[in-house]
Amino acid sequence: MSGASLNTGAEAAGSATDPAADAANPTVFAVDADRLVWSDGRHSPEGYICASYSADRIALGKPIRKPFKFRSQLWVCVGILGGTTTIAKAYRLVPAEHFDGQATTYPDKTRDAAAARRDPNGFYHGMTVLHRGSKVVLCGPPSMFVPRVAAQFELFNER
Fold first, then answer.
1. Is 97 helix (H, G, I), strand (E, B) or coil?
2. pTM of structure
3. How far is it, in rounded angstroms, from Cα 126 to Cα 96?
């Protein structure tokens, strides 16, 4: 994720389907910081983004962890950058029958890992995964989820 510039704006300029967004210049969504708290997934409230982290399970061909809901769509986290601020990288989940593109598997896509990493829609774009016994597809480009910065009221507002 280093070196990538971020599309920012009112809450997030554009959307995950913004044609100007791509894996190298992801759309950024500002969310309540509580949604980015790490949890083991078993004890996390609905909507915890980091608890959906599933990159390890995707690589092993196992079902993904419980996805999170954002703007009426299901998403799964594939990367977490921590430190003083937590940033999560996630892909939308699309039912396989609704995916507009060539779906693939992790083993097939990683046969040429360099090409997979250069995919303008992101490394995981088009990968089929299991969720609740059904095949779904990760749809890129990925988006970044960052904590919303609380607006500070002006203490000395001259009128």
1. helix
2. 0.78
3. 9
